[in-house]
Known about the structure:
Number of strands: 20
Strand content: 15-25%
Number of helices: 17
CATH class of the largest domain: Alpha Beta
CATH topology of the largest domain: Rossmann fold
Shape: globular
Structural class: alpha+beta
Amino acid sequence: MTDRVRSQQSHSAASSGTPLDAVVFERLMTPFLPFEKNPKLAVGVSGGADSMALTLLAHDWCRNRGGVLLAVTVDHGLRGDSASEAKKVGDQLAKHGIDHVIAPWVGDKPTGAIQEQARIARYDILDNILRDRGIFHLLIAHHADDQAETIAMRDAHGTKVLGLSGMTGRRFLRHGRMLRPLLPVSKADLMATLAAFDQEWIEDPSNTNEKFERVRVRNDLSRGTGGKLRDQSASDHRIALETSIGEILASSVTLHGSGIAMIDQDAFFAYASNNGADIYALGQVVRTVGGAAYMPVFDALRDALAQFGRDKTARISLGGCMLHGRKGQIYIYRELGRMDRGAVPVSFENRDVQNGIRWDNRFDLMVDDLEILPEAGLMIGPIDLCDVFHTKAFRSALREIVPFIGNLPRAALASMPALYDKEGLRSVGGLEVSELSDVLSAADCERPLGRGEFAFGGRWRFAPRVPLWESGFKSSPKPDNLLA
């Protein structure tokens, strides 16, 4: 149902807040400089008060700089009227001359952890739109009340310092950066902003459904019975901690295009961490190699490091990865038993990234024109599925011609992505085609067509859900300085 600002409940909230204007929004955007001369921005808009206010403010901000704004509504399809609501959002924004697209969440929907799974899917969809539209900046309307709820939930779950500092104002996606300029702003101020614009919004009924933890926490906070407020000292602590994490990663970690990471144990353990930086650094590596949205739990990471402290040759299964101590390194690679080992046909119908196929949520096989490929025959899977990988001649030639790769643990090699057909191996992620051609030739195997590029004009791209490191916790301006 669409509610106007003039309803009794909405009017009360709006009257207690202060509308944001162009000057205030400029201050909110300043920490995220620089932008292009004529900035292109996307904004996620559900139609709720928060995202509608952000969209209107961002539209004026872009227009004043000769830029353009694209508003994107993700239709999760979880409610029967979601499609019509998404259309209403577009109709409202059209009155302000704002471009709007609706992006559906296709495929099977989860039966559990619905809000969490919907959130992950929403960011993936928005990230793909950034790629398709050539936009680098995505605005999201999380505000001060959301921040308080997040910190309260994390505190209840025993989250460490990184979590208790709250959401960062900036984080990186695969194809751009996500910005949260409204973190210092209260919900009441956003509703007052919509009242100033005389703009209506949509109320999502899930926002009052107490089966969801966030709603329960929100109600507790409104009654003054739960949670803690964001502490500036926690933000300062996080900034210092992230500096240490970045130093550890830079000095001790090598991440290869095959999706395999190596941690130099001497360099890594030289950092006598008393603040958990080493534990978080290991978590960052495991998360990236495993293609996950989040790192494993803190205690599991701490236990893994303690085990390597006792035994430098330990092997540990964690976060969908194998942590393998060998020759002074900790090799981190995808665990075969945790992967979907079914071969994926290469065809236009199977593409899920622009001109490409995503595999294991970590690799994109990018092809100039999928439609010209044969309808059958080319498959993607771990190289472990290819017969040639299991021959001594192939592995011996690999060690001789590409020693950096060939000397990796065999289980690590087995997890590397491969393109093959009934005639044999065509390409391997992390290997130049010329290198693979030489290896196959030395092993007296059929070589792939062409040297230096795939015969059909393609390439592998290691593209995990999040980068190895997104340093620079973005603390937001203090609220009492915004409206002065």
